[in-house]
Write a structure and sequence with these properties.
- There is one protein chain.
- It contains one helix and no strands.
- It is mostly helical.
Length: 113
């Protein structure tokens, strides 16, 4: 069996990067709605309201979808962070158990001498 090593600091860094990505996606969502307002001026006073009505519905739907994606990415970041916490706690517990075993074996070896 090959050695298996988890670097908790790297896992935490990755979780942070994913969290930053979620923030970027949320920012994109906000930019979608501001683009909608800019479109009205582009089409003029008479055509703009008609075009923008349909465009606004599509952009609102896109904004909601991008927001949902951002929420999911944020959840992944949280899960990665939780995984790092769980792994660290498990590793600390294993180290404590290994020390207990070592102490027990030292006691047995000391009794023989």
């Amino acid at each position: 069996m090959q050695d298996f090593e988890v670097n908790v600091a790297d896992l935490r860094d990755h979780a942070s990067a994913v969290g930053n990505l979620a923030g970027d996606v949320h920012t994109m969502s906000g930019e979608i709605s501001s683009a909608s307002a800019d479109q009205a001026q582009m089409y003029g006073m008479f055509v703009g309201p008609m075009v923008c009505a349909g465009l606004s519905v599509m952009l609102l739907s896109a904004e909601k979808m991008v927001d949902r994606v951002a929420d999911l990415v944020e959840g992944i970041g949280g899960n990665l962070s939780g995984t790092a916490d769980d792994y660290q706690q498990t590793e600390e517990a294993n180290v404590a158990e290994a020390k207990n075993i070592q102490d027990m074996l030292s006691g047995i070896g000391g009794a023989r001498a």
